[in-house]
Design goal:
α1 packs across α4. About 5% of the residues have low confidence. With 313 residues, the chain is α+β, with helices and mostly antiparallel strands. The longest helix has 15 residues. The strands form two sheets. Strands 6-7-8-9-10-11-12-13 form an eight-stranded antiparallel β-barrel. Strands 1, 2, 3, 4 and 5 form a five-stranded antiparallel beta sheet that branches.
Length: 313
C-alpha cells in the first residue's frame, strides 16, 4: 500500500476538527512511482437560519429507495437557497400510507430541515500543516524497526463494516401445484401434486432475505405426503414493493407415516415477480426418495415443475 493513501486519510481526519472543509487531489506521473499531492481548503459559511422543506416524491424517485428520496428532498432545499453546497445538521420527517394487502406502505412525503452552507475562500494549506499531517500519518500508519534487525513493519488494514440497521423479520406463505416426472418408468405418465410452504426469516438487506421453513406436498398418484424442511435465500433485483426475484430452498424431505418411502435431499429454485404483498413464480424442485419394499430397494429422483402463488405476511 502506498503511503499516499495513509497520508491523505490522516490529513482529512486532522482537518475535520477545524471549521474548514478540505479537498485532496492526487495525480500520478506516467511510469513513475512518486505521487504528486496538492491540498486546497475552504471555509464553510453556515446560515444561522434553519430552513424547512417538504416534497412528495414521485414513483421514479421512490424506486431508488428511502435514501434516494431523502437525497432528493435535500437537493431541493440546496437549490432553493442560492444553490448551497451542503445542508448542515439535516433532519428528516417521513410519512407513509398504511399500505394494504396488495402493496407495502409507500412514502407520501418527506420534510427536511437544516442549515444551508456554502464553501468560500478557497486557499492552499501552509507547508507546516502539510508536513505535520504527513509526519502524523507516518507515525500512526506503520512502525519500522530503526535498528534494521529484520522486524516486520506493522500494517493496519481496515475491517469492512456492514450496516444491518434496516434488517427486519418477514414471513412468506406459498401455495403451489404442478407436475412430477419420476426418474424410473414404472409410473408411465408421471403424476400431479399440490402443497404449501411457510418460510420465516429476516430481510438483512433491502434486496436480500435469508430464512428457513417447512412445506407439505401431496402426491395424488401415490397418495402420500412429502414434508421438506429447508433453508431459504432470496434476492430481489430492485429495492421496492415491485421487483423480480430469485429464490432458492435447500433441505431434506420426510415422508411421515409411510414405511415404503423414506424421503431424501430436497432443492427448489424459483424465479418470480413480487408486487406488493403478493408474488407469483415458476418453481422447479429436485427430490430424492428412498423406496424400500419387498419388491424393490432403490433411490428415486423426481423432477417437479410447479406454479407458485405467494403472500408476504
Amino acid at each position: 500500500m502506498k503511503l499516499s493513501t495513509l497520508y491523505t486519510g490522516a490529513l482529512l481526519l486532522f482537518l475535520s476538527s477545524c471549521t474548514t472543509a478540505g479537498m485532496v487531489k492526487t495525480a500520478s506521473t506516467l511510469k513513475t512511482k512518486a505521487d504528486i499531492h496538492s491540498l486546497t481548503i475552504a471555509d464553510l459559511e453556515v446560515s444561522p437560519e434553519r430552513v424547512t422543506h417538504t416534497i412528495h416524491p414521485s414513483d421514479e424517485i421512490l424506486r431508488g429507495g428511502e435514501e434516494n428520496a431523502k437525497r432528493a428532498a435535500e437537493a431541493e432545499v440546496l437549490a432553493a437557497h442560492n444553490n448551497a453546497d451542503v445542508l448542515v445538521d439535516a433532519q428528516y420527517v417521513i410519512t407513509k400510507d398504511n399500505g394494504s394487502l396488495f402493496k407495502r406502505p409507500k412514502i407520501t412525503s418527506i420534510t427536511v430541515t437544516g442549515h444551508p452552507a456554502h464553501y468560500k475562500n478557497y486557499h492552499s494549506v501552509p507547508a507546516s500543516v502539510w508536513d505535520n499531517a504527513v509526519a502524523a500519518a507516518t507515525a500512526v500508519g506503520q512502525s519500522i524497526n530503526p535498528t534494521g534487525s529484520g522486524e516486520a513493519k506493522k500494517v493496519f488494514i481496515p475491517t469492512p463494516k456492514f450496516n444491518f440497521s434496516g434488517a427486519k423479520f418477514e414471513g412468506y406463505f406459498n401455495a403451489f401445484g404442478g407436475y412430477m416426472v419420476p426418474e424410473h418408468d414404472d409410473i408411465d405418465d408421471g403424476c400431479y401434486f399440490a402443497g404449501g410452504s411457510l418460510t420465516l426469516g429476516c430481510r438483512i438487506l433491502p434486496q436480500l432475505f435469508i430464512g428457513a421453513g417447512a412445506a407439505g406436498k401431496y402426491v395424488f398418484h401415490s397418495e402420500f405426503v412429502y414434508v421438506p424442511v429447508y433453508g431459504n435465500i432470496r434476492f430481489y433485483t430492485h429495492n421496492g414493493s415491485i421487483s423480480p426475484f430469485i429464490d432458492a430452498k435447500v433441505g431434506h424431505s420426510f415422508v411421515p407415516g409411510d414405511k415404503m418411502y423414506k424421503g431424501g435431499f430436497f432443492a427448489s429454485p424459483t424465479i418470480g415477480y413480487a408486487f406488493g404483498r403478493f408474488e407469483i413464480g415458476i418453481q422447479y424442485t429436485f427430490q430424492k426418495c428412498r423406496i424400500e419394499s419387498y419388491q424393490m430397494n432403490r433411490t428415486s429422483k423426481e423432477h417437479n415443475l410447479a406454479l407458485s402463488l405467494g403472500l408476504r405476511l
